[in-house]
Amino acid sequence: VSVFQDDFGKPPSEIFDSFSPIPIAAASLSQVHLATKDGAQFAVKVQYPDVRTKSAADLVTIETIVKSMSLFFPEFKLSWLAREFRENLPKELDFLNEGKNAERASRLFADDPSFATPTIYWGKSSSRVLTMEYINGCKLTDKQSIINMGFSPIQIAKDLNRIFNEQIFVHGYVHCDPHP
Predict the structure, then answer these.
(1) Is the pTM of this model over 0.85?
(2) Catalytic annotation, pick one of 58, 112, 142, 177
(3) pLDDT tens digits for range 22-34
């Protein structure tokens, strides 16, 4: 909630009718809270308060490891790895960038009925808070829930394979968070 307060100058309770303090999902950079406003449900992705500081330290660690390895194993050229992290980690930490990427993916697959991205609510988003339409679902690893929702796990696997390949080989652009 402190990140939300810092970014918007007010607590979530002043923007939403309800905001669950208990996250419905969590990952390495953020956690997702369920919120409501005027009957609509939102998924509010909030970055952990110290993630940027820790990420800066992680970059230094990666660069140190890569430099050390090059001293002991000069045949391994890994400096590209440190550059890749330094270039892309700030993009990963910018939730406005994530929202723009989600909208781009939505446009690329607008005619594909098996593809969906949540609507982004820009007025309730910042570089550390991403507010999206809440779409009910389950983990990809929960086969029984997938079946109970009326979907075929095999068809979902085929669709995911096709969509990933189309992103890579047709669009040259990938937007995903591949862990279940």
Answers:
(1) yes
(2) 177
(3) 999 998 899 999 9
